[in-house]
Please model this.
Amino acid sequence: MITNETRKELGKFLIDVAKLVLGGVVFASVVKSDDLPKVYVMILGLLTILLFVIGGFALINKSTK
Model:
């Protein structure tokens, strides 16, 4: 079984990963690259960030109940 403390730490980890993805999206948008359009990078990055943040807060919320 997963304890409440483990859920809380996993939630914090997911939020930290979302911050790193945000930094990667900002870095990728600043660096000039012709491989992938910036719009695709932004959309994919924002969806990933949203997924990790929702998952992280859901785990933290579940650990407090």
In short: The longest helix spans residues 4-30. The chain has a mean pLDDT of 92.
